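Hi F.,

I've been meaning to write this up properly since the lab meeting, where we talked about keeping a consistent format for the predictions we share between groups. The idea is simple: the sequence comes first, exactly as it goes in, then the structure tokens exactly as they come out, then a line or two of notes. No screenshots and no reformatting. I'm using this chain as the first example so we have something concrete to point to.
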Amino acid sequence: MVFPFLKKKKSPIWDRILDDDSTRLRLKYDTYYPIFDRQAGTRVFKDGKEYVMLSSNDYLGLSHHPKIKEAGAQALKNWGSSTTGARLANGGRAFHRELEEALASFLGKESCHVFSAGYLACVSAITGFVGRKDIILADKNLHSSLWSGIKLSGAQCERFAHNHPAHLREILESEDPNAGKAVVIEGIYSMEGHIARLPELLEICQEFKSFVILDDAHGFGVLGGEGRGTADHFGLTDEIDVICGSFSKSLSGIGGFVASSTDAIEYLRSHSKQTIFSAALTPASCACAHAALDLMKNEPQHRERLFKNLARYNSLLKELNLDTWNSEAPAVPIVLGEKEKVYYFWKALLEKGVYSVISIAPGVPPGKDLIRTAISAAHTDEDLDRIEEAMRYAVTKI
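Output, unedited:
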């Protein structure tokens, strides 16, 4: 008997799949997609070995908070596992509306729509508002989700140098003044840890009558009053047309949101395919996000601990003369510049029980190959001691 999976596949696509160097090298060096056997706080376990997690985006350390677990369990009991469909088809539920109202109020916007993934929310924040006849001005270091939205929008796209207001102005000056223009930026850039130069960027956007879309996935919960985000940090919430983000960072959950005026959100619900046709966020995910939002507002000690941990971590990296790309956020890259150095540094951290993640070109600009790390409020002094020991060891391996 010949099993079907042993037969030779015949097509150009299968040829490409079976002869892909990227996949072959990933599997050979085992750098991505690990499966951990269990987790306890910031510690993860694989093949009998314990690691401190140093690449999670759990900035406020809320993923194991008892109030969040209780809220998720109660929602599952009351509402079941899913609404099993898109909200346009079989409706939303009270928990969707309650979360959306809470988020909109917290962010200083009139209205909000929640999604089953942050990636989906960021795509929708562009496709829901920008059309084929418009022009998009995009920071060249945007997240993949935003590039997906830009491509799907069909709009003309011009890239400006990362976080560079003068280059944005230069491009806008050359564009048709009567064309619809959207500027897409991030609040905190997830790979670099850079905070957007919002005051300068928004001044230019207003001058050229540009619609502003801000992905604040990594600023939400970190910057601004009570964690309201990058726009609040600069006192510029009203100048931002659309704020989108994710629940998988500071809210320690799954899902995403788009917040804007009531008119804009209703327009999104009419025109974004990702909004119209995607299944609704689950009851448990909504409840967990809502509980985390309440904790963000009412338990400031988590942000305080985050910044305390970050100060200690940055001090260590500075002492070791490691290049952090001038990160201003809990997402802290360690730029080593060469794939080989990155790999050996990463392996050394693993040897000492610290898990991080590699990012190399083309995921980052040439010469910026790096180890991507992230600090959490959940990291204990003992965790930071182990991280310090691992970092001191890793620098000896490059």
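Notes:
Residues 111 and 262 are 5 Å apart (CA to CA).
The first strand starts at residue 38 and ends at 40.

If this format works for you, I'll send the rest the same way.

G.
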